[in-house]
Structure formats: C-alpha cells, structure tokens
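[stage:ingest] chain + small molecule (magnesium ion)
[stage:ingest] validated
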Amino acid sequence: MGFFSSNNAFYSSLEMHENIMVVSSNDEVKYINKLGLKFFGVKRIDEFKTKYKQSINILFLEEEGYTNKYTFGKRWLTKISELKYKDRKIKVKLYSHIDDMEQYFYIRVAQLKKDEFLLAFCDIHDIELEKNHLRKQADFDPLTQVYNRVKFNQVFPLAISRALSFDEPFSLILFDIDHFKIINDTQGHPIGDKVLFELARSVNMKITEQDIFARWGGEEFIILAKFLTVKQAATKAEQLRRYIQGHNFGDGLTVTCSFGVTQFESKDTQKSIFQRVDDALYLAKEKGRNCVVVK
Ligand code: GH3
Ligand code: MG
Ligand code: MG
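[stage:predict] done
[stage:export] tokens:
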C-alpha cells in the first residue's frame, strides 16, 4: 500500500465524501467506508454481507445505457477501470427495510494490489433521473401527452423491418378532426386545446398495446396498428369514429373525425405508405367527412 504505513491509516483516509468499498478479485467485500455503510443501510460490513448475500454481484441492475458487471465476465473490475467516464455509469439495487430502492452511480475502480480493488460510487441519481425524464419527455407531444411525430418516425422503420422479416401485416390509421377551425373560432383556442387533449386521452384508452399512437400534427393523429390487416384496421377505425362521434368533450361539445386506412405492402417505402394513407384521409374529407376510407 506504499505511501500508507498501515491498513488503518489507509482506510481512515477513505472516509471522504464518496461511498467507497474495497473488493477482492473474487468479489468479496473487504471494506466499506462509513458513508458507504450508511448508504447501504447497514452498521457493519458483516451486516452488509448478510444483506447482500456475501457479494456485490446482486447490487448491479441491467438497464440500457448503464454498465453491467455481467457483460464483463471475471475480470470486470479491471475492465470497468478501463472504460471511459461516460460508460462508467451503473444502476444499483439497494435493499432497505422500508423499500428496495434503485439508485444510479458513477463508478470508479482503482487496483490497489494484485487481489484488491477500490470502488468509489459517486451518487448521480438525481441527475440521471432528470436526464431520463427529459429523454422520455422528448418523445411526447406536450399538449396531448401522446407520442409526437419525431418518436413515431423513429419507431416506424422498425415496424417495416419487422413486417418484412416475419411476414407480419401492419396497417396505418390516419385521422383528422372535422372542421376543427370552427371550434377554435367559435369556442376559442383554449377550448380547442382541451378538445385535442381529450381526443388523444380517450383514443389512447380505447386502443390496445399493439397500437402505436401519435399526434401527427395540428388536429391530425396516426395509429400504427401492428399485426392488423387493412380489413381489421378499418374495423378499428370505424369503432373509433363512432366512439369519437358519441363522446362528450366537455359541456356537451362533440366533434367528428375523418379516417384514412391502409396496409403495409412489401414494395412500400415509408414515403409511399404515408402517401397512400394521406390520400385515403383526403378522400374521406371529400366524401363528406365523419367516415372511414380504405386505400
Ligand atoms: P377539415 O375538416 O377539412 O379538416 O377542416 P379543419 O377546420 O379541421 O381544417 P383546417 O386545416 O382548415 O384547420 C385546422 C385547424 O386546427 C386550424 C388550426 O388553428 C387548428 N389547430 C392546429 N393545431 C392546434 C392546436 O394545437 N390547438 C388548437 N386550439 N388548434 C389547433
Ligand atoms: Mg381538420
Ligand atoms: Mg388537418
């Protein structure tokens, strides 16, 4: 341990502001500083060992974007120490008597001896929660709280490749509120906003987990109906049309929507299928609105 004259002197130097652990190469925890003990909700290291079943293995949780010890195999400590800063984020499960908690850390690993590693856990929980929250928020339309167009365009290519690989059908349902401008003009823009919110909320309740629903823009919405043929999607669209027609949007206010429906064909590109569903919606408007047109 070089500079330090004894183990005690070394360990007392570790009483800093981070949770620190010393771990042997076979994952046995040899030392935890005071802050770490407090953090893990234990008074002594043997209590920690009992609680965490002798090893720190079960601390680590799998989540996309976070380093996981299991992906590194036996020499995981050395490998983590070689990672870049941004890749040294981990998600950890903490066992407490009240409730199990998940916590994000930035981890540093330093090799002390051939068989001894020092792990420093820096708490980044609040920052990571905020970041994850913002990342999720970016997928949603702020007014209606359903997916926005950007998110829909992200998932759409996946639906195409799935459909081609597994020869599975999917359909698109595009719908637009009829004469929405009149609602804004007669009731005011804030009521128009409420109608959009209520439409998105109530349609979201009606559709299934297989449907990807997004605000396509303005008063236009889109559903990617996985596994549905055009016939099945048309039935779904007709159900939604009737449901919207009969729905109370507040103080007896009602609206109707026009629907375009089409099914993905293997020769389609993203552009061609959108063009077709847009044409179908246009025809529904031409036909007099509040109807479903299949193309
Ligand atoms: P059509 O049946 O042909 O679709 O008629 P429409 O009046 O619904 O269509 P038009 O494209 O003429 O008008 C759409 C209106 O939707 C105009 C626009 O101000 C309104 N709109 C778009 N986005 C919002 C929004 O976020 N909030 C509110 N209140 N209105 C919006
Ligand atoms: Mg409209
Ligand atoms: Mg429109």
